[in-house]
């Protein structure tokens, strides 16, 4: 699933092309996504000027005139530009903007495209989300406050969008490794020093991933349909049985049904 870096890369890719432009037309070929595509999406958005493209966690927000499009890429969704309208398999929606179409492609249909006339922060998809990890206000103090009553493991807590948004399985593993914290450590036992170290590690890992174009395992591509390459910089994720930089051996185990990778030598 695309995590925060991948969604941020998509945001940066589409914003310079579409901000200030008008949606000339909308073609909806398939409404059956994880959440049904908003009825009358064409009528509600055609003729609207695009004011801004933002990101909240793993959601893209396309601000229109008094309304907003909320887009989640799900497990396999991508956005890209095409000179042609959507006709190929899995091309579910196309927005005609000037000379190009912005295409939403989603083979597994786990994403969503929702139109809202209310403030996006009040929408049910967004209203309970935690702080943005790349925000200047996110630091060890904020993280420690969110963790202090959590009895789950720290890895599980990081995947909880109420604690911090956008840090999925890959970047949680990489951040915990950088912070030298074992993924099974109870979250409430992460004190001030380690909370500060972890908050800094999350920021560093996410920025590195964005600079590298994100991580591509199966489906993710940017708006130019090019793959990211942060996966070549992974220190633990996907490297079970391989050596760690500290000289230890990376281990893998299942945690809440998902693969977790860590080094028992340098993560305690």
UniProtKB/TrEMBL annotation:
CDD domains: EcFpg-like_N (cd08966)
Requisite cofactors: Zn(2+)
Coiled-coil regions listed in the entry: none
A Pfam family hit: zf-FPG_IleRS
PROSITE patterns for the chain: FPG_CAT (PS51068), ZF_FPG_1 (PS01242), ZF_FPG_2 (PS51066)
Textual note on the cofactor: Binds 1 zinc ion per subunit.
Domain Formamidopyrimidine-DNA glycosylase catalytic intervals: 2-111
Keyword DNA damage attributed: yes
EC number: 3.2.2.23, 4.2.99.18
Molecular function via GO: class I DNA-(apurinic or apyrimidinic site) endonuclease activity; oxidized purine nucleobase lesion DNA N-glycosylase activity
Keyword annotations from UniProtKB, A to Z: DNA damage, DNA repair, DNA-binding, Glycosidase, Hydrolase, Lyase, Metal-binding, Multifunctional enzyme, Zinc, Zinc-finger
Record's catalysed reaction(s): Hydrolysis of DNA containing ring-opened 7-methylguanine residues, releasing 2,6-diamino-4-hydroxy-5-(N-methyl)formamidopyrimidine; 2'-deoxyribonucleotide-(2'-deoxyribose 5'-phosphate)-2'-deoxyribonucleotide-DNA = a 3'-end 2'-deoxyribonucleotide-(2,3-dehydro-2,3-deoxyribose 5'-phosphate)-DNA + a 5'-end 5'-phospho-2'-deoxyribonucleoside-DNA + H(+)
InterPro entries for the chain: DNA_glyclase_Znf_dom_DNA_BS, FPG_cat, FPG_Glyclase, FPG_N, H2TH_FPG, Ribosomal_uS13-like_H2TH, Znf_DNA_glyclase/AP_lyase, Znf_FPG/IleRS
Domain (FPG-type) ranges: 235-268
Alphabetical list of SMART domains matching this protein: Fapy_DNA_glyco (SM00898), H2TH (SM01232)
Role description: Involved in base excision repair of DNA damaged by oxidation or by mutagenic agents. Acts as DNA glycosylase that recognizes and removes damaged bases. Has a preference for oxidized purines, such as 7,8-dihydro-8-oxoguanine (8-oxoG). Has AP (apurinic/apyrimidinic) lyase activity and introduces nicks in the DNA strand. Cleaves the DNA backbone by beta-delta elimination to generate a single-strand break at the site of the removed base with both 3'- and 5'-phosphates.
Database matches in HAMAP family: Fapy_DNA_glycosyl
Family according to the record: Belongs to the FPG family.
Self-association state and partner proteins as the record states: Monomer.
Name of the protein in its database record: Formamidopyrimidine-DNA glycosylase
Name of the gene this protein is made from: mutM
């Amino acid at each position: 699933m695309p995590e925060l870096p991948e969604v941020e890369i998509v945001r940066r890719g589409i914003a310079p092309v579409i901000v200030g432009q008008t949606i000339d037309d909308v073609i909806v070929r398939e409404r059956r996504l994880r959440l049904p595509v908003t009825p009358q999406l064409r009528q509600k958005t055609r003729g609207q000027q695009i004011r801004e493209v933002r990101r909240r966690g793993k959601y893209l927000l396309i601000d229109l005139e008094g309304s907003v499009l909320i887009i989640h890429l799900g497990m396999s969704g991508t956005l890209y530009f095409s000179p042609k309208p959507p006709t190929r398999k899995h091309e579910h929606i196309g927005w005609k903007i000037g000379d190009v179409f912005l295409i939403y492609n989603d083979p597994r249909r786990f994403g969503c495209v929702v139109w809202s006339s209310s403030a996006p922060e009040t929408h049910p998809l967004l209203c309970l989300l935690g702080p943005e990890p790349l925000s200047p206000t996110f630091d060890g103090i904020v993280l420690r406050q969110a963790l202090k009553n959590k009895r789950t493991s720290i890895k599980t807590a990081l995947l909880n969008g109420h604690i911090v948004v956008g840090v999925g399985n890959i970047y949680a593993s990489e951040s915990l490794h950088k912070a030298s914290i074992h993924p099974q450590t109870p979250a409430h036992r992460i004190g001030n020093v380690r909370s500060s170290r972890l908050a800094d590690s999350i920021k560093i890992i996410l920025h590195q991933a964005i600079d590298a174009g994100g991580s591509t395992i199966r489906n993710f591509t940017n708006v130019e349909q090019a793959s990211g390459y942060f996966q070549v910089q992974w220190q633990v994720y996907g490297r079970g049985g391989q050596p760690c930089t500290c000289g230890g051996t990376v281990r893998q185990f299942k945690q809440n049904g998902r693969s977790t990778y860590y080094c028992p030598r340098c993560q305690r």
